[in-house]
Every structure is written in C-alpha cells, then in structure tokens.
Write a structure and sequence with these properties.
Length: 182
C-alpha cells in the first residue's frame, strides 16, 4: 500500500520548469531565462488568464520575467485544447457526482413513498458517500496518467503554469504541448 501511495503522489506531482525563450523588456535580451524554482501560488486565475508559479528572470540584467512567461503561456496554450479523453473523464465524473446521488435519492424517495423500504435504504445511501474518496482518487489517477505518456516515447512533462483552470505541460523531449483539467 505504501509503495502504491508513493506511486500515486509521484504521478500527481508536477515537474516544474521553464524551457521557453523569453524577451526581456528591460535589456532586450532574447533567450532562455534563468529559472529559480517555483513558489506555490495563492491565487489561481480563472477564465483564460495565466498563473505562473515558476520564478524566471533575465540572465543578462536580472529583470523579473514572470509577466513575459504568462504572455508566452497564452501564446503557447490558448489554441491547445484538452484532449478528448480528458474531457470525457471530466464529463463522466461530473455526471457521477451530480446525477447519481439524485437518481438514488429519487429511487429511495419513491421506495419510501410506496413503502418498499425504510431506514436501511438511507443507510445504504449514506454508505455510498464512502465511495467518493476512491472515486476522486481514481479520477485524478486517470487524468494525470496522460502526462506519463507521449508520442515521442520518452515523456518528460514539464509543468509551465496554469491557463485558467487547466494545467499546461510541455514535453521536454519532443516539445509537445499538453493541457489537462482536473
Ligand atoms: Zn534583461
Ligand atoms: Zn514527448
């Protein structure tokens, strides 16, 4: 179980980084910025606004290039759509979360009205909520599995930031872009 949990957290872990060239507005330098790790973001921007967690600066004059990174992220990813499989999983999950309890409630309500069952049915419904954590677990596992495979055969997804609420990755090996929602 422990190794499984370790695998699970590794699968969900982001490999932060920045491998795209940027223009420095201060000195005009164009090239790969200096990358100085990342900080957890306090706010995630909604809509189509970028959230950059990495610290990048100009290698020549030290100018902070976070804003330029945000613009680059939009340039890279605004035309990238989340994959069909990702969208299907989200639709499936939302319908599970929304529809299934309602359906169960309706069935139980009808059952109670018609005198089919009583207290045990409510208990059964209650138990069903226990299924929720494993369902979220499975869902995240499925979604983030996409980062572990790439057409180039050597997947190395680098997390560049968020665009709206979707995660933006670039394969370090082949440069392929990947956008994920969870
Ligand atoms: Zn500069
Ligand atoms: Zn690749």
């Amino acid at each position: 179980m422990l190794t499984f949990l370790k695998q699970y957290s590794q699968r969900l872990q982001h490999q932060h980084g920045w491998e795209a060239e940027l223009d420095c507005p201060a000195c005009g330098n164009h090239g790969l910025p200096d990358y100085a790790g990342w900080t957890p973001g306090s706010t995630i921007h909604f809509g189509t606004r970028p959230t950059i967690l990495v610290s990048v600066s100009c290698p020549r004059c030290d100018q902070d290039l976070k804003q330029q990174a945000g613009e680059k992220l939009i340039e890279f990813f605004s035309h990238v759509t989340t994959r069909m499989r990702n969208r299907r999983l989200i639709t499936l999950f939302i319908s599970l979360l929304v529809d299934l309890p309602w359906l169960l409630c309706a069935v139980i309500w009808a059952g109670v009205q018609l005198g089919w069952w009583g207290h045990t049915a409510f208990l059964a419904l209650n138990r069903l909520t226990l299924l929720l954590p494993p369902a979220i677990f499975w869902f995240n596992w499925q979604i983030h599995g996409a980062r572990r495979c790439c057409e180039c055969g050597q997947p190395a997804s680098v997390f560049m930031g968020l665009l709206g609420r979707s995660y933006c990755y670039r394969c370090s090996t082949c440069g392929k872009l990947l956008r994920l929602r969870d």
